Amino acid sequence: MSGKRSVTVTLDGSNKSTSLPLMSGTLGPDVFDIRKIYNDLGVFTFDPGYGSTASCDSRITFIDGDEGILLYRGYPIEQLAEQSNFLEVCYLLLNGELPNAAEAKEFELGVMRHTMLHEQLRTFYNGFRRDAHPMAVMCGVVGALSAFYHDSLDVHDPESRRISAFRLIAKVPTIAAWAHKYAVGQPFIYPRNDLSYAENFLHMFHAVPAEDYKMNPVLAKAMDLIMILHADHEQNASTSTVRLAGSTGANPFACIAAGIASLWGPSHGGANEAVLKMLADIGHVKNVPAFLEDVKDRNNHAKLMGFGHRVYKNYDPRAKIIQKACHDVLNELGIKDDPLLDLAMELEKIALNDKYFVDRKLYPNVDFYSGIILKAMGFPTSMFTALFAVSRTVGWVSQWKEMMEDPQQRIGRPRQIYIGAPRRDYVPASKRG
Ligand code: SDX
Q1: Which residues line ligand 1 (CB under 6 A)?
Q2: Atom of ligand 1 at shortest distance to CA of 269?
Q3: If you measure from the C-alpha of residue 303 to the centroid of ligand 1, how many angstroms do you get, rounded to a whole number?
Q4: Ligand 1: which of 69, 361, 362 to mutate, most ligand atoms within 8 Å of CB?
Q5: What pLDDT tens digit does each residue of the chain (433 aa) get?
Q6: 3-class SS at 235?
Q7: Which one in 106, 299, 359, 424 has a CA-CA gap of 20 to 30 Å to 65?
Q8: What's the distance, CA 308 to chain centroid?
């Protein structure tokens, strides 16, 4: 980045002013470097929700919200979805370049050799109720990994970071699949390193010891595609959570557990589960107009889940790809008319022609169709966000690694504008009103 231009800020009524350099990245808006504004002017900037704030520089993912563009290390998501596979995308996000054949093979071996969990972690599941939400289990078990892998907790050692990255990317699918098996009372299925990453996950999730599991290549490809689409997304809430946790020097397992917790919210990764609940509540196309009136009613807190995005003010490119994959999966499964997909498409059509949504540039995001395809693939709704977490782990780890490798890295510590009570003296209970 080279910063030639600047802006001068002068405080009205004072002789204080400062010159803020304007920095340009490879793509996207320029940024004002405000790091010296407090020292020079004695003021903070104010941006709750960080709508206008760049928290870091990064080489990993670029989003153009107005154009609906998503690039992983410069490669368009549409091309990666069409031509790549999830493990290759993991290599790309972590290392910055697509692997050659030898690098891809070595990376695949590196990941697949870490898919098993310490046997004692099996008993860890017994502490949960069978009806625990899978995301509660994921938070607990991923956080507990730091109790088992003391040999890779030195965040300042590149080799420890490399092993932790492999362990997290490899073990999170096993942890998620076992959360489901525990919930339904079926035995845990061990990982199979002869399968692809997506096949291995489907096998651990759906297989039972009583019979051979027949892998459906169309569903395996759809699983791999869904993982690619959810792998990373710039500085979203959960990634920012991972970066902030990591900035204190916390170990990577604790940081990813924090990311999982943040992703769980219905405004973020929990939206895919909320979309299915919303569609079930609407029930039929004839109820769509009344539902949308509720959404537009300021006194109501109903949201059109799976719509809207802080960055995308155009169609989320991932939603377009998933919608197409929906049709492929439903055709493969012989589901001619999926009422949920029909309802979702009708809801989208009506909303995209409604002034409320058009004025606010609210379009379908990645979560609008993902639940439909996951439900068709036999995943319970409660597992949707856990699947998002499995896919996003590589993005979280890549962003954490990038931050830890940054020589300028320092602890993240935002400030505030204080609007509470001025200084006042303590009042003894006997003298209070
Ligand atoms: C993900 O950040 C990422 O990159 C996230 C993600 C990733 O890959 O990591 O892309 C994944 O989290 C996708 C988003 C999933 N969430 C949902 O689908 C939940 C529904 N969406 C909304 O809650 C909302 O759109 C957010 C949270 C996604 C974005 O919120 P913003 O940017 O703070 O927008 P806003 O709340 O300021 O909304 C602006 C206006 C408001 O109306 P007014 O006050 O101007 O009248 O749009 C309205 C909002 O009420 N609005 C909606 C709406 N989303 C925004 N109205 C109805 N339904 C919605 N879904």
Answers
A1: 49, 233, 236, 267-269, 271, 295, 303-311, 360, 362, 365-367
A2: 12
A3: 9
A4: 362
A5: 554 799 999 998 888 999 999 999 999 999 999 999 999 999 999 999 999 999 999 999 999 999 999 999 999 999 999 999 999 999 999 999 999 999 999 999 999 999 999 999 999 999 999 999 999 999 999 999 999 998 888 999 999 999 999 999 999 999 999 999 999 999 999 999 999 999 999 999 999 999 999 999 999 999 999 999 999 999 999 999 999 999 999 999 999 999 999 999 999 999 999 999 999 999 999 999 999 999 999 888 889 999 999 999 999 999 999 999 998 999 999 988 888 889 999 999 999 999 999 999 999 999 999 999 999 999 999 999 999 999 999 999 999 999 999 999 999 999 999 999 999 999 999 999 9
A6: coil
A7: 299
A8: 16
- Residue 376: which residues within 8 A CB-CB, separation 6 or more? 326, 329, 330, 333, 335, 338
Look at residues 66, 68, 74 and name the one whose alpha carbon lies nearest to residue 27: 74
**Strands, E assignment, 44-167:** 61-64, 69-72, 75-76
Q: Evaluate whether 392 touches 173 at the Cβ level (below 8 Å).
A: no
For ligand 1, what atom is nearest to the CA of residue 237? 2
Residue 211 pairs with which residues in a beta bridge?
208
* Identity of the residue numbered 218: V
- The overall pTM is greater than 0.90: yes
